[in-house]
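User: My collaborator sent over this chain with a note saying "see what the structure looks like." That's all I know about it. Can you take a look?
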Amino acid sequence: MNCTSCNNGYLKPSFIEGQFRAHSCTSCGGDWILIEDYVLWKDRNPEYKFSENISFEESEIADTKKALICPSSGTIMQNFEYHLQMSIR
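Assistant: Without extra context I'll predict from the sequence alone. Here is the result:
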């Protein structure tokens, strides 16, 4: 499946912190996550704490010329950002 963000790479199956399913772009490095996968995982793992270097937050909605459509469900996608901070030693 082609990346819904950059349209250059393709989405390959992956996992966020080895915990829940995602698809990572081979070009831009973005991740496509089905909200159902995250919600189901969160319900089963309510006490899980992500690494201190990862945070999830809803992105502010920016003006765009078109909405991104989910290639799986055909619905409009919601944009969330997660930040991974890496320390270099």
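A starting point for your reply to your collaborator: The chain has a mean pLDDT of 76.
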